[in-house]
Amino acid sequence: xxxxxxxxxxxxxxxxxxxxxxxxxxxxxxxxxxxxxxxxxxxxxxxxxxxxxxxxxxxxxxxxxxxxxxxxxxxxxxxxxxxxxxxxxxxxxxxxxxxxxxxxxxxxxxxxxxxxxxxxxxxxxxxxxxxxxxxxxxxxxxxxxxxxxxxxxxxxxxxxxxxxxxxxxxxxxxxxxxxxxxxxxxxxxxxxxxxxxxxxxxxxxxxxxxxxxxxxxxxxxxxxxxxxxxxxxxxxxxxxxxxxxxxxxxxxxxxxxxxxxxxxxxxxxxxxxxxxxxxxxxxxxxxxxxxxxxxxxxxxxxxxxxxxxxxxxxxxxxxxxxxxxxxxxxxxxxxxxxxxxxxxxxxxxxxxxxxxxxxxxxxxxxxxxxxxxxxxxxxxxxxxxxxxxxxxxxxxxxxxxxxxxxxxxxxxxxxxxxxxxxxxxxxxxxxxxxxxxxxxxxxxxxxxxxxxxxxxxxxxxxxxxxxxxxxxxxxxxxxxxxxxxxxxxxxxxxxxxxxxxxxxxxxx
Length: 508
Ligand SMILES: Cc1cc2nc3c(=O)[nH]c(=O)nc-3n(C[C@H](O)[C@H](O)[C@H](O)COP(=O)(O)OP(=O)(O)OC[C@H]3O[C@@H](n4cnc5c(N)ncnc54)[C@H](O)[C@@H]3O)c2cc1C
Ligand code: SF4
Known about the structure:
Oligomer: single chain
CATH class of the largest domain: Alpha Beta
Number of domains: 2
CATH superfamily of the largest domain: FAD/NAD(P)-binding domain
CATH topology of the largest domain: FAD/NAD(P)-binding domain
Bound molecules: flavin-adenine dinucleotide, iron/sulfur cluster
Radius of gyration: 22 Å
């Protein structure tokens, strides 16, 4: 196949790039390793969604298996299955990037128009429906402790408040790439290859001269006899963190400063659940509509690790797979799911020398594996987060609190929880850690020695290659990342469209 630009992946970064490049009249091919599924396939069933829409059937793990990683693998990427929370990149994070990674242009003012356009394009705005009980309890506990909690903006249009965003939106209300940028790009002539994985980029004289892709079977393995070679003037890699650096590693791209795959961040998440004397029904209604940044702001950004609190959805598979214990005790916990409230803490990694993130490596078959050590520094944050969540849940009226930690007993009151959590062994694997926010690994920097891509998203050593996805963040964001990707990629892809076509374009 031949085209002007080939885009690897079809998620957040890919969708924005495809819309802008096709607006500039470019002939675009989009290659997605996952399947094309749409609202008619989304039946609010975890049993169908996780195997078909997620990387490694939602069972992706870090090398020591201590962290479970959720990432999308379908048309629309993680935007098809995400929970719609939308935050601009926090000012403190941008200031850190300017200082540490020589990115002087990334100011709030300079990014403002790019965020605004993305917000308008994707209907990101206040969610005016009352929060579900699961979120309301976050606010109740926070108010009683004198901690600020605020509303989360969402990328929805006519949302039915069903709560199954993580299984794909059955009403097309979620303004993911599946229903926004990708259809527009296809209408303008872009071609989309599905169930096709880009295995490697071919390099000659410092340029990518071709891509080798192969069909993918339902279990993720290559389908024999389905190889395709694609030639393009320019290549945009948007496979998401972990997969994008893995593709560049498989292709043996130059990496003179050992930056490729390094500094991969996860916002490691710890979870606390609490049983109330009334129904909570955490599966019902929009997930994550309230948050608290109180514990992000207690210490400086490069001090002890801070964390953001949110209320995740409580569906049977996600709940039972993060529940601890076994036998009768576990059966009781699961039976009480309808009265269970859940809180999560997103730990802001990447701002301290002892939180340098993980390294993407390749397995013998070329598939990616993330080695992410949960250092004592990170685990200290996890302990403080457990304390904060338990205190908040008891303040909200919880009868019993149980942490996602294999050594934690259920606690009946805050005094008991406080003593016990202080003594908990904060070890990987005992502490259940998860992530749905994978960032970094192809970090952006203004100096070649500090990053993989330049401030305009182009690869430092390979001129006709750009990376447009969450892998370009030099640290974690400290907030749910989708809008950071939309905003930053909007800026990069608009410039790329101008460089390649001479035309000025903007999101519709
Ligand atoms: C369950 C869940 C809930 C989330 N909730 C939120 C939320 O509420 N708010 C928020 O801000 N963020 C949320 N996120 C995260 C957010 O959706 C992601 O950060 C964002 O979509 C990442 O964008 P991306 O472009 O980096 O990659 P993705 O959107 O993940 O897209 C990458 C795509 O590339 C494909 N791909 C990878 N490698 C190849 C290859 N070699 N060949 C072909 N295709 C390839 C993948 O299959 C995938 O479809 C959530 C994520 C998940 C999984
Ligand atoms: S809560 Fe809204 S956006 Fe999420 S799945 Fe339901 S209708 Fe779609």
